[in-house]
Amino acid sequence: MDTIGVYDLEIRGRIGKDYWEREKVQPILVTFRVQTSTFKSGQLDNVTDSIHYAKIAKKIVKFVETQNLESLDSLAEHICYLCLTYDIQKAYGVFVTVKQPRTLLSAKLVKIDMYRCRTDLEGMQERCKEMIETTGFDIVDLSLFDDKKIETYFPDKLTALEQSIKDSGELYHEDFVTVNDLQINVLLGVNLWERYSKQSINVDITIHMDKSKTKNQKIHRDSSENVQQEDIFIPSRDLRRLVERVSRVCDTGFLYETKAMYVVDQPGFLNTAFKVETKKTPHELLVELKKIESDMGRDFNAQRFGPRVIDLDILFYDSLVLESEDLVIPHPRCHERHFQLQPVIDMNPYVLHNKLTTTVDTLSKKLVTIDGVPNDVVQVMPLSNSEISGKLVIVPVGENKKETIAMGIVNTTPDSFSDGGMLDDSETAADYAVKLFDQGAQIIDIGGQSTKPGAESVSISEEISRVAPVIANIRNRQNGNKYLISVDTFVAKVAREALDAGADIINDVSGGDADPEMFKLAAEKGCPIVIMHMRGTPKTMNSLTDYGSAGDMGSGKGDVVLGIRFELAKKVRAALNAGIPRFNIILDPGIGFAKTHEQNFEILRRLSELTGEPLYSVNSKSTINFRSPKLSPNLGSLTGSTEMSSQYHEKLAASLVGYPVLIGCSRKRFIGLATGKENPKDRVYGTAATVTSAIQGNAAIVRIHDVESLVDVIKVSDSIYKPNVQEK
Questions:
Q1: What is the tens place of the pLDDT at every residue in 191-218?
Q2: Where is the Pterin-binding domain (predicted)?
């Protein structure tokens, strides 16, 4: 593809977020290279068949001198738009570089490299329209040029547009922001004499900014819910409707219950936020959201801020600032609402409110510390699959606002380690499950395959025959009760049959590793899923307890808790990428699975660290609870010291903050080794101690065999460690 360009065009203009940056004109250097075909003009020696670079340069100079944009990337995109629309039939793509010398005190310059092509024009026009018109230029009617093409021959039988994109290389996918010759004074060197005085070093920094055809939006969802009702809509339905109407839902926040604002005499609300990728413009997206609201029964003539079955708002649209009669972006009231800010913080606390030039995390803290608005949102989790059972159970799981949930165990296997062969038919197993519910269990976990160390696997059909009839029989015994049923399996086909029979939750001990279809199923069904940490299989896991052998420096360096965090984070990232909402994920550190007895106790001791903030160094503020400067006895063997390196950085594929945690220690062998009880059924008191420890570590769910004996332990432990539970 031919290019026509102008290099380092020096213009004087104002740019910057702060007033003092825009007080005086600054030198700005602009380079543009327009992709076009010079074949015809060269063959006929006719300049009018080419692109007039001098006129484009004049247009750019006028725009830069009169605009008042706040960032280089925004300025570069506006220049791209001007270049592409100067002669839309001849320009296929454009490379733009904008440099700002001495914008940083200690750096030579800051620059941005950008590429845009015809396929980007629609989205660019939405973002650039306001400033283009303000500076006196006309907006091009793109509909007149949709089918305009130049008949030009290219090798590889590519079209002109395809060739221009091919020639753009990496810049088609990413914008590059570069800081040149950043001068830093540092103490650097191995020897003491080298570190006696600071040395001056120059650093070049390049930041790759993802530039996709699709644009990211944060969409807030809330609905007026009376928690006693059974016919409310659950967020997974919203997700599927969004998937149908836009390109992709790529992340969600957690789910929150809040009191009504403005009109307070109404039931509370359930709130979350979605991050979506779409090719739709903001106004097109708004139309689709209104269709979803209408389909779900929203009455648009009802009282403003009053009860509503659903309310979808666009909070952010990339870095766009838009004000029109029917749409304002960023949302005009999101900065004063915890229930809109918090689910966005869950996904990314550094999302920038481009009008206020402040991150959502800072806005939330400002609401509390400066404006005096308490963050009273209550994190909740939908535990039932209401699209199957017709009922929804919402359970608080956030810190200081939760009761610990008892999950009873029903094993329909002949070879389970403590109760194998006891429940060998569906009627007996269903009766036993109902008995556990009556004793105080809120969830029953039904398994048809033993996962004890060394256990042999069974066929899919055999596992289905063990669990599906039991679930169906339990549903037949409900008599109006809201029984919550979990299926303990790592096989997607078994989980599907169990869900169709009436199960609510998938409990996958492999954390999605054993069957690649499991996460897809959970996303499709919109059901909660327990993602457990395990290595290998039940036959091999006992040989995989070395957490110091991984080569990645972010994998834990021998510390079992950090190792689990590292591996669980990868599973969570895979689950989110598969389309599972964040609020449907429960984490389990996998006590007894690829862990030594000592490691099991270490996990219980440090359970609160499992879902803490990432660890950056020993000296930084972190939620990791250091009892001493060391993390674990294994760490010293890798670092050569009993102290952890202050330069250690924990690299997680996804944040684990906020996820509810399930703990399953019931009757396990490490308890027997500590108590001397060889018979698993004699380990009730030992299990009770682990239950109390788990509750102290903020576990949301404990999985137990002896429900009748342990529900009182749960209640008393809640009273000790979760006193706010009593405030009802």
A1: 666 656 666 667 766 666 655 545 666 6
A2: 404-715
